[in-house]
Amino acid sequence: MTIDLKEIKSQFDRIEKELNLFELNICGVKIWAHIRPYLFALILEKLNIIGNVSSGDIDQSLYGILKKIIRTIKNIFYKKEAMIGKKKKTEVLIFSFPRKKRIDNENWDIFTDFLLKDVNFQYQVIEQLYDDVKIPKIKDTLYLNYFYGLGFLLEKFIKVEFTKEDIMKLNKVNERINQDFNIKINFIKEVKKKIKFRYSYNKVLEKLIDFYQPKLIIYVFNNIQVLMLMNEMCKKKGIPTIEFQHGAINPIQLAYNFPKNVKPDVLPDYFFTFGKYWEEVLQLPFPKSNIKTVGFPYFEHEFNKYQNQNKQNKILFISSPTIGFELCKFAKEFVDITDKRIYIKLHPKEYKRWKKEYNINMNPKIIVIDNDEEFPLYKLFSEAKTIIGVNSTAIFESMMFNKPIFIIKLTEWEFFEEFINQGIMELINSPIELNERIENLNKSERSPINVDYYFKKYAIQNQKEEIRKILESINQ
């Protein structure tokens, strides 16, 4: 049985509106905008819809804390730190996306590096941390080990005390959430963690911004609390921020869906989208003129490279962290009733854990792809006969190759309901049904996809032009 995510989201919205939660002020902080994406994910976890939302958290044991401190000290000496040395002004400060891809034997940030090959503004790239993993050392990039290390230590010594009024307000929210969703969460504890984080990192973040005194900040991925804090601080300092789209956006993602009547400071000033479609899906409470449709340079590069390659008959499953176990279970049941071989492309977050968790590594009819270099994603799309998935951004990218796409009715299938209703994709309930549909695939030509609507052409030029206009308006 699948659970109606849209109904859960609607109920969450009702609570948010009825309790006026965007005005919830705790310890002098309007905390709701900071906590709502995490809280919604926590509710889904408690309802057994998704896995552990805290799985990437740092080990809080004494051993874990000591290990973190030692690694941070080592990294400070090993890598060029963003906050050590003399202050240096830069026109544009760029927080790059830390999960890199290997392109031509180099580590690339696929969201910002294409832009930076030839620009007429001064910039400094700073690397974010990513799930506490080792980040490759890249020329001219500075790192935040000192920043995160200092914030991490401060967090251990800061105490947050709530007033009786604060506790009454938090208890009211806590009771409503637990009652409406029939779950048990400790809202007070979660808010305390967010406020501790805020107190710990705010001063360090201000030092970082003052260190570079940028006119403009560009970053990838907003649903990280440090970047929310940065947007807040930049608004106080009058520094505009731009967020680059990094993945699919849908009506259930709270990071990109806000009521029209609120204006939380955690949001960027500008949002650069892949295409017109994403601009229409976004529900951000700021002027449409600040949403810029520019394209996605990496998609354009890879699509042009592989779209006309020789097609093969690969059956390609696209996995993602929240549904990986269920998808692989479905795939295993599928190969048990057919003689076909299948390919399962894992998400990078699944690379380290799939052998322990998914129970598919000994099946000769299942080829698991956990290496981007050996099996480029867009090459797989080009070679596929059909593509199967549930909720991955990669499904949108594969749609541009105009292959039959089947969406398995598992948690979060609703992300593609619009395309299922339009007949662009097809909803599948069982491995038997999938096998029958693949056996009877229509050989006729499929209706062409308007690629430019989803991924605008000339992305690099578009990015540069929009940034130029923003910098000009700042300098006036």
Overall description:
With 476 residues, the protein is of the alpha/beta class. It folds into two domains: 1-296 and 461-476, no CATH class; 301-454, 3-Layer(aba) Sandwich (Rossmann fold). Helices cover 42% and strands 14% of the residues. The protein has a seven-stranded parallel sheet with strand order 7-6-3-8-9-10-11, with helices on both faces. Strands 14-13-12-15-16-17 form a six-stranded parallel sheet, sandwiched between helices. Strand 15 (384-389), helix 13 and strand 16 form a beta-alpha-beta unit. Helix 3 (62-78) packs antiparallel against helix 4 (145-157) and helix 4 (145-157) crosses helix 6 (187-212).
Key features of this structure:
476 residues; alpha/beta; Rossmann fold; 17 helices; 14% strand
Query: Helix count, per DSSP?
Result: 17
Termini Cα gap? 58 Å
Residue stretches low in confidence (pLDDT < 50, at least 5 long) are 55-59
Strand content is 5-15%
* Whole-number tally of structural domains: 2
From the spread of the alpha carbons, the general shape counts as: globular
Q: How many β-strands, per DSSP?
A: 17
Helices and strands: which structural class? alpha/beta
Helix content: 40-55%
**Mean pLDDT score, rounded?**
88
- Round the Cα radius of gyration to an integer and report it: 23 Å
Taking the sheet with the most strands, its summary is:
7 strands, parallel
Across the major sheet, the strand order is 7-6-3-8-9-10-11
InterPro entries: TagF_C (IPR043148)
